[in-house]
TrEMBL record:
It is found in: Cytoplasm. Keywords: Chemotaxis, Cytoplasm, Hydrolase, Phosphoprotein. This is Protein-glutamate methylesterase/protein-glutamine glutaminase. Contains a C-terminal catalytic domain, and an N-terminal region which modulates catalytic activity. SUPFAM superfamilies: CheY-like, Methylesterase CheB, C-terminal domain. GO terms for molecular function: phosphorelay response regulator activity; protein-glutamate methylesterase activity; protein-glutamine glutaminase activity. Belongs to the CheB family. The keyword Hydrolase applies.
Length: 361
């Protein structure tokens, strides 16, 4: 889900990793890919969660890679027990299937920092690129404050924001949310408190194509809004939210007196599909001062330039603050550019999206 950073954060010693997977082939493959980085040390492997439990006590790893589907105990059940008894950074290893998507989203809700797909060895250059992604996410997980993540998962925000709504303005306003690493749960928490009659919402989350439908369905279950994966062209109406499909871009445009969103196959400068920058830039161009944009947790800088354009166009902009972010990369980039009018904790994002535009920009 996150972008590839230019390099790992500085550490006084290598990141110690324990690999948990029931496949001996996968354990060897992942070990080899990780040990290609001198700043990563594979301290052990485990074929199931029960062996992993003993090795965690003995080896005290910094990060766990955890297979989703295993015998004796599935990965998510083990993860829930682990986060309750000994919270630590976990990167899930998931299959790119509909079933794998649902289970992986459950794991992120249970406290996993991030996930990687099972590697595809049949694609030219695929294994090399997979190794880069895997190593980057291991370094990122090692620097993630898991106590903060566990607190966010355990105490989702609550509130009723209906009193902030102005029905006269709802039809012409559009809200936009962008995120990457840690964003599936952050977006869920924001949408869980948005009232049913709020302005339409468009969402760009870095996510594989196989996962975005399940992600939209999960958001719909937790929200008073009607949340769907965006198709080729949809009207934007109050009480609706549209999720950019993995592998496609989402753009907002004017249609007569209202708004619509459409998806495209275009590339972005930063390589993301969906790209938060592209979505925000379309907001700036077409919605202008009636747009509000929020940039949440994530690696890299996608969304920062687009958010600056939203602010320059008169729209309201808000970034998630560092203490409540899993990774303060994308929001930090926006703050550095002067793109964010406000920087607030995650549990204030929904309120500022709805009410911030009323109080000046």
């Amino acid at each position: 889900m996150g972008s590839i950073s230019p390099g790992p954060p500085s550490r006084s010693r290598p990141v110690r990793v324990l690999i948990v997977d029931d496949s001996a082939t996968m354990r060897r493959l992942v070990s080899g890919l990780l040990e290609a980085d001198p700043l990563i040390e594979v301290v052990g492997t485990a074929a199931d969660p029960f062996i992993a439990r003993d090795k965690i006590k003995k080896l005290a790893p910094d990060v766990l890679t955890l297979d989703v589907e295993m015998p004796r105990m599935d990965g998510v059940s083990f993860l829930r027990n682990l986060m309750r008894l000994r919270p630590m950074p976990v990167v899930m290893v998931s299959s790119l299937t509909e079933q794998g998507a649902g289970v992986t989203l459950d794991a992120l809700a249970a406290g996993a920092v991030d996930f990687v797909a099972k590697p595809r060895v049949d694609v030219e250059g695929g294994l090399e690129a997979y190794g880069v992604e895997l190593r980057t996410k291991i370094h990122n997980a090692a620097s993630t404050p898991v106590a903060r993540l566990a607190e966010t998962v355990a105490h989702p925000p609550r509130g009723n924001l209906s009193e902030l709504l102005d029905p006269r303005r709802n039809a012409r306003r559009v809200l936009a949310i962008g995120a990457s690493t840690g964003g599936t749960e952050a977006i869920r928490q924001v949408l869980s408190v948005l009232p049913a009659g709020c302005p339409p919402v468009v969402i760009a989350q870095h996510i594989p194509a196989a996962f975005s439908t399940a992600f939209a369905e999960r958001l719909d279950r937790y929200s008073a809004l009607s949340v769907q994966e965006a198709g080729t062209d949809q009207p934007l109406l109050p009480g609706q939210a549209w999720v950019a499909p993995g592998g496609r871009q989402l753009r907002v445009y004017r249609n007569g007196s209202g708004w619509r969103c459409r998806t495209t196959t275009e590339s972005s400068e930063n390589g993301h599909k969906p790209s938060v920058d592209i979505m925000f830039e379309s907001m700036a161009e077409h919605v202008g001062r009636d747009g509000s944009a929020a940039l949440l947790t994530g690696m890299g800088s996608d969304g920062a330039r687009g958010m600056l354009r939203v602010r320059d166009a008169g729209g309201f902009t808000v970034a998630q603050d560092q203490p409540s972010s899993v990774v303060w990369g994308m929001p930090r980039a926006a703050v550095s550019l002067g793109a964010a009018r406000e920087v607030v904790p995650l549990d204030h994002i929904a309120e500022r999206l709805i009410g911030g535009g009323e109080n000046g920009r």
